[in-house]
Amino acid sequence: WPDDFTDPKHCLPNGALKPRRGIPQIRYSDLLAGCQQVDGQWMFAGPLNGWPGLVNLQLVSLTLRVSSRFTMRKIKRLWNGQGELPDKVPIKTRATLRMGGWAKIGWSPESRGFCWWYEQLRPEPRVLFGESMIAALDHADSKAVRVHLYAHRYPKSHESLKDRILWHALLLLEWDHQKFTTVVELGLVNGVGGYAGKSAWLDDIEHPCTQLYRLMPDALKLPWNERGSEIRCVDMPFTTSDEFYAHMKKHSEKGELKEADCRWVAPEHSLTESVRLSFCKRSDIARYLVNYLCADTTYDQLTR
Fold it and tell me: pTM higher than 0.85 for the full model?
């Protein structure tokens, strides 16, 4: 956007651009100020639009969508990544920036895999992610002994037919140490880090800045991507599946809450099985999850 752009749809009352938008935005003067040439490429240091994870980006191109009364809309390329950047650009110019190739399968080049684990019950809670979490997990040698399948719907102010038939499934793992259990679920990538760390499994979900978000590495704080997936693991303060299910019912229409205050709708405990894997330590489970997502990072609400 130009410096004098003040559309209230995109700007705060003080004129600053609204931060952390799903489609990041920036004033062109700030883009110019943040770019420098490195080995012939224009690099933007960031962070972009207040997203802590959008740093060290390569500026690839500047384009503009144009149309007229007699022709279809088309994309006009204003700058193709070569030579000096233009001093000015028209309003609604689109800048294409990209991360390194490692970003296709992880949040950092040192720890691939879109999977994170929130150890909220430690004396000092922390969030681990990617391959590096495999060796770093507490109770890494404890074994999973039982696995439970749960399903629920999400509350909607006006349920559509799709909302009524769309269910979210998750797993609950019981460990041999019997100190806590762990929720394992798949969702759209950056769906928690890009939403201020809000998760239905947290007691402080209504807090403007949850403990999970404060502990999350900056690399995980990115705009959500509806075409990619991540796996989330959260240690829960329940030692049995009965305690966990009672917690779910308490925060659903099966409890005493008003429908508007529910976290889940129609929670169901669908299946319980003993874990039959020969290698079922926490570190093994973490390895399976990382490998699973490295093989396929796609997300589809209806099929995955």
Answer: yes
